[in-house]
Amino acid sequence: MIDTAHKKGMFVQFHSDGYIIDLLPELIGMGIDVLNVQMTIMGIERLSTLFGGKVCFRSDVDCQHILPFGTPNDVVKHVKQIIKAFGNFDGGLIGCGEIGADVPLSNIIAMYETFKNYGRYPLKWVLE
Which of 52, 90, 97, 127 could join 61 via S-S bond, C-beta 3.0 to 4.6 A? Predict the structure, then answer.
């Protein structure tokens, strides 16, 4: 299926809410173009070290803790961590986050403004 999609000029995205770190080499080897996985659960830095530059990651901003219960500053720090971990690699980063009914508007704004202000190439910021 992946080869068929690629032959038609399409990209293939894979999503999982599971702890699938051991399956990622196989998925990447099969030709998955974009991974949308539980970054925080598997470890942002660990995923970056093991797979950064090998595949594009669609960000998974922590929607269980940071987005609903953190401060806007917590959200900014978390999004910058994701950008730093995956934004410098050839694989790339698609910045997005899941917004539930329990997420304060101030945190939604903080997330999108951080992606907008710091997630553009070339990356021109230093993590504070």
Answer: 97
